[in-house]
Amino acid sequence: MSEDKYPSESGRRRFVKGVVGSAALSGVGVSGAASVNLTTQPSGGGGGPTPFVGLSLVGGPAPRGMPYIPVEIDDAGDIRGVWPEAEEVTEGGTTYQVAETEVGGRTYSTEWFQYCGRQNAEGVQPNTDAENYFKSVAPGDADYGWQADALSEGDRLNVEDFADYEEWGNEVGSDGVGKPAQTTWRSEGLDGQLPVTVIRSTLIEEKAQRDDEVGEWFSGASSRGIIAYLNVCTHFCCVPGYKVSENAAQYDIEDGIYCQCHQSQYDPFSPSFETFISLPRP
Q1: Sheet strands side by side (includes 106-109)
Q2: In this predicted structure, what is the pLDDT of residue 95?
Q3: Which residues are within 8 A (CB) of 44 and not within 5 positions of it... i.e. 6 or more apart?
Q4: pLDDT at 233
Q5: What is the pLDDT of residue 97?
Q6: Which one, of 40, 102, 7, 107, lies nearest residue 277 by Cα?
Q7: How far apart are CA 192 and CA 198, in angstroms?
Q8: 187, 173, 267, 258: which is closest to 227 by C-alpha?
């Protein structure tokens, strides 16, 4: 009998390892990151102390915010996430691929998404040729009525889908705070799914005009008031909801993001500039 309990094609064992490793590393201070990185560095390379920009964590057990995905809009109005060009680097005798670029005054790196087993997803490998457009989930999987009615699975998100963002509401929290959509990103036909939430909001438009680091970030990472983030809770890899649960009102986060699994709460309109310990790629 193979010592690997799960078939290799299922990815289940790799996912569990990623979850356990993520939970363990989330409690490691940045000061100890270098030694952790040395002891966990596999042949694939990467991982270790990673500066990133995430949604502000405002409550609950999660160790940090979920990472933003910088967005751009093409000439047809379709919305996609930025993916930098990959290049080879050599570190400690190991050569591996990295993909990073400057966005909003920060170094944006694909290593932002190396947590909760997502480092195993094909879509986060720097040199993977994947679709960068945000694709709608199936109507039956959509938490928002407008999306279930207007979009089919695999449809590209377009800026016109958010035309009523200044008034939109769904009886959870306040109207006009921000209109969301649930998507996948760099996942089609690949092993491992990347769930992403896209929001258009006047709050983002306003903050992008500020003359500070918040304004600089949003002016580079958002477009026409649209932001995106990897919707995977940094606590234990659950998938939270923006303006989904009425229970969020108990924590005064009905206009933000609430993870029903363990009550972590995030503010999608306030960036946090932090460092976390990303897991090495396999």
Answers
A1: 86-91, 94-103, 106-109
A2: 84
A3: 96, 280, 281, 282
A4: 98
A5: 86
A6: 40
A7: 19
A8: 267
